[in-house]
Write a structure and sequence with these properties.
four-stranded antiparallel β-sheet, about 550 residues, Aspartate Aminotransferase, domain 1, disordered N terminus, homodimer, 3 domains, 17 helices, Aspartate Aminotransferase, domain 2, about 45% helix, alpha/beta, about 10% strand
Chain lengths: ~550, ~550
Amino acid sequence: MQKTGRSPLVADWNTLDRVFIRPEDERCRKTLVKYMEQILFGLHDFLNRHVGVTEEISLVRLAEEYTDTLINKDPQKKLADVIKDIINEIAPRAVNVASPYFIGHMTSAIPFFMVHLKTITAALNQNVIKLETSKVLSILEKQVLAKIHRMIYRFDESFYAQHVQNVDTSLGAFTTGGTTANLTALWVARNKSFPPKKDFKSIETNGIVHAFRAHNLERGVVLVSRRGHFSLKKAGGILGLGSNNIIPMALDSNGTIDLACLKDKIARLRSDPGTRIIAVVGIAGATETGKIDPLPELAQICETNGIHFHVDAAWGGPVLLSETYRHLLEGIERADSVTIDCHKQFYMPMTSGMVYFKDPRAMDNIVYHASYVNRPGSVDLGIKTLEGSREANSLILDSALKIMGSRGYGLMIDHGIETAAEFAEMIKKRRFFQLVTSPCLNILTYRLVPPDIQQKLEAAGEKEKIKLEAIVDEINIRLQRIQRENGKSFVSRTKLPVNADTSRESVVLRCVIMNPMTTPEILNEILDEQEMIFNTKIKAGIG
Amino acid sequence: MQKTGRSPLVADWNTLDRVFIRPEDERCRKTLVKYMEQILFGLHDFLNRHVGVTEEISLVRLAEEYTDTLINKDPQKKLADVIKDIINEIAPRAVNVASPYFIGHMTSAIPFFMVHLKTITAALNQNVIKLETSKVLSILEKQVLAKIHRMIYRFDESFYAQHVQNVDTSLGAFTTGGTTANLTALWVARNKSFPPKKDFKSIETNGIVHAFRAHNLERGVVLVSRRGHFSLKKAGGILGLGSNNIIPMALDSNGTIDLACLKDKIARLRSDPGTRIIAVVGIAGATETGKIDPLPELAQICETNGIHFHVDAAWGGPVLLSETYRHLLEGIERADSVTIDCHKQFYMPMTSGMVYFKDPRAMDNIVYHASYVNRPGSVDLGIKTLEGSREANSLILDSALKIMGSRGYGLMIDHGIETAAEFAEMIKKRRFFQLVTSPCLNILTYRLVPPDIQQKLEAAGEKEKIKLEAIVDEINIRLQRIQRENGKSFVSRTKLPVNADTSRESVVLRCVIMNPMTTPEILNEILDEQEMIFNTKIKAGIG
């Protein structure tokens, strides 16, 4: 924030004074706004460009430019120059996730007012770990948690009147994302699976070995379809259950959890006295396919067997705001816990997630106090969260809900689901493409299979098939890479079983349609580009 | 973002179009900047006010205003009105952590350029979980990690040349705070404590029960002084070790870990074949007192015994940037892992922390892959982090280091330490106050003890002492509360042993001097106010 000049930059008290500048007089205010103008105008080009790195520079060469590892002693740059550098050097090498041609991941465009709301949150810099550093923001957070809890569970007015500002109960928590939300849910599920016994207080206090011994157990498992997000396996590892004990369940022909297999597995596990089922996880919007597990049936199975039912709705949760499609999530209100991400379909900036519990006492299983902060019986939200210090993301969500209304969100959700359905039809009609997973929400997968190979595949024997499939895999890997490097559009890729034989996974292209600016015309262009890439850059080299 | 008008707000495509507004033409750009101006100017009053809630409104009454739990269907407010509401209704009821009179917690003023940098990060909305949604930001993050690693460990140039952009090794990770940084460090320490054996792959995969059985163990423990942050106990609970197995060690007369006790404890634990010591934690800036454990001695003990040495420098880490005081952290370069928070003494906005590992292979112990993201051998940073999706906080830290230089940070660190020392002298000179813990860094604790009670305490017998101490506790609880409610200044309170007898903890006032605008004059005013509060509002009611 130094004045322009030729003199070298120095760190002194005078500079510090200016660095801690706040809009105290008209001149300072103007300076701060001028910088914001630079940021907003400067990022204009970035946000209007196509996807990815238009600049032709390989990753290796790019990495070579970021190798200096010494921290400069004196200031190197003024804020204005830092902003300029970011606009001219960082932004062009970043990924334009806001482009309507960027349909490859769950990170997408955000309404620009979100940037303003994030700016406010940063300027206030409240820390909702405790009341003393957040005051009204802790109270607002409890209200927002109740709003979303009500969206999920639809308890009656009196329930929310009782709990919305209750300092002893918790309807949920803001987390830093779906990963820690899932971890929190399984943490609670793990702890409540081991009620106190003589000489055993809790798994939290005494540890797993002691808990298992007190309960005569050998292992605790979590069951989830093989489409479960990898954060669930990670949670198993972190929580000491072992990632191997997050057991992947087979899929049925819909690509969702096979209920017969699940029931059978539960019966077998329950007949083993050494095993306890800590949770069953239903997915409401699988990361790779967008599929939603049959939640009412899962709820029923869990209720019958007395198992904690967690729904990972990190992706699909906000579909509850769509009057047209909320029925897809029916059964979620019977979940013991639910994960929903804010930086996904609530269109908030990175990084924010949430976890909810049907029972307002469930989070008592993870309570921690400290005398300098988070005293029992206080509004200190940090008492029952995995994370410590946290920014006031609830202010952003609350404001967004006021600006958009549930109908505004509903429009975006509907657009994604309906555009994805249209996209699926387009893919089916094209000779070069094969739809692999049809969209239930706004995610689908497909692959490019040249018509001649398609024909051969139909007639091929087992050995020949394997050879051909390998070729198709290679085509799609190269296709995705070339398209990404072209920088005009972006789809991602993963591996999924393409046929009834689920033992073999094929490379597929994965699309997530969440940007409301993504139109069928754009999707058509993307398919055109892929055919063109295949015909001009891949075809000649195959076989 | 609707035009001003009397018509009701509706959610339709036209609105959506405007909501996803980006600075595409001159008019839109101006609108976006106008909103930023409202934000920056509007928060002006807030940031220049005294601490806390000037508005006289009790917590209970405040909570009553935040009880509506229905999400509105149609938009309720335009962005401009939301901003206005935040400025007029939320900010005045938030806590002005930026005030130089707010010296109670580790959340404080941030240089205003940080708000601009956060705005940029939000506008770019990159997700550094993987290269495909972040590109250069993942590469930049690796560089920033190397810079801070070098600040801590000071390996030679060739070490950093080898690792700075190495896709197979990791020098550390950005986390969402010190809590998850500590959790990550202990997660790594836990996993590496159980090398593979026949029929046992890893604790991560197989779980604790299996791991303990394979290694013939009954429990795993972590040793840390009783001043350890509560996130360490929480990590013990989450990781399945049991929070009881995070064993608090006695303090010596310096208020840091008692080395003789520690050595003795280690010897006893090692003689028990069923127990493994997973880590010893040294504190570099205790949350309550700012004290730094004797790091070289701890390092030596850990090296001798082959124990993972973690240093929780969430608070103190940036002291390494001060040429005058970095010697206080000597020994940190021998730690196996180190936690440093960004939103504490790196003066970044909420929420950002970091964890570092001396061994670039240590994080291999917590690796997770998923085929749609985070492929092995890629720059995908999400492979080895507790968190999933993450914003590009490294851009903020990197920019701040360029703007301030290590000297700029050093000035702020020096100011805090030296002002705290001065404050301690002021306290000692005053008749009404007793310094409880002298400042090693920029944190100190003290309490108000009226001179007549001080005299009585000196002469009192055991029973009388207990009665008097209870009175002093009550005085300080009320003092802190009244001062907070007055809203002019803020100190926090906690409980610490005041005398040699550590079995009894007394209520103390706790100050954290990190705002460079906090001067000795301000501190003097705060003590004056406290004496005044005691004399006018407390004195009459005691005894």
